[in-house]
C-alpha cells in the first residue's frame, strides 16, 4: 500500500518562497505519476502541478506557471518549489499518486485520476 507524507508548509509573507516535499513509502514513484493539489479555505480542491512516472513531462496550472516547479527523484521523493507566493496561494497542499501504468495527458488535473493522497500541509501567505 503506497503512503504519501507531505512536509514543508508554513507561513510566509507575499513574495516569499517555500519548498514542499512528498515522501512516498510502499512503492517507488517511477511506477506512478505524481501530482500536487491544493484546497483554499472554503473552496474545492484544485490541481497545481503533476509529473509523469519517468519524470519527462510536467504539467502546471496557469495560475502558478513561472512561479511553481514540480520535480522528482524517480525514487521516493517529489517536491514543489513555490516562489513569488501570493495571498491567494494560501491553501492546504496535497501530494497525490496514480495507480501504476496510468497516463496523465489530458487528465492530469482530475483528482479522480489519483487514488492515493497525503494528509496535506498548510501554506499560509500573508500580504
Description of the molecule:
- This protein has 127 residues and is mostly beta strands.
- It is built from no helices and eleven strands.
- The strands form two sheets. Strands 2, 4, 5, 6, 9, 10 and 11 form a seven-stranded mixed β-sheet that branches. A four-stranded antiparallel β-sheet has the order 1-3-8-7, with no helix packed on it.
- A hairpin with a 6-residue loop joins strand 4 and strand 5 (46-51).
- It starts with a strand and ends with a strand.
Quick description:
By secondary structure, the protein is mainly β.
Q: SSE layout and pairings?
A:
Elements: E1 3-7, E2 10-13, E3 18-25, E4 34-39, E5 46-51, E6 58-60, E7 68-72, E8 77-82, E9 91-97, E10 116-117, E11 121-126
Parallel strand pairs: 2-11
Antiparallel strand pairs: 1-3, 3-8, 4-5, 4-9, 5-6, 7-8, 9-10, 9-11
Amino acid at each position: 500500500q503506497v503512503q504519501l507524507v507531505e512536509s514543508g508548509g508554513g507561513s510566509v509573507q507575499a513574495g516569499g518562497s517555500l519548498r514542499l516535499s512528498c515522501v512516498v513509502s510502499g512503492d517507488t514513484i517511477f511506477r506512478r505519476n505524481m501530482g500536487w493539489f491544493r484546497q483554499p479555505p472554503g473552496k474545492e480542491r484544485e490541481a497545481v502541478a503533476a509529473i509523469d512516472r519517468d519524470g519527462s513531462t510536467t504539467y502546471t496550472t496557469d495560475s502558478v506557471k513561472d512561479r511553481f516547479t514540480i520535480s522528482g527523484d524517480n525514487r521516493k521523493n517529489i517536491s514543489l518549489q513555490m516562489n513569488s507566493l501570493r495571498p491567494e496561494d494560501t491553501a492546504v497542499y496535497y501530494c497525490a499518486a496514480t495507480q501504476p501504468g496510468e497516463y496523465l495527458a489530458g487528465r492530469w488535473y482530475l483528482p479522480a485520476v489519483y487514488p492515493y493522497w497525503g494528509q496535506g500541509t498548510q501554506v499560509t501567505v500573508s500580504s
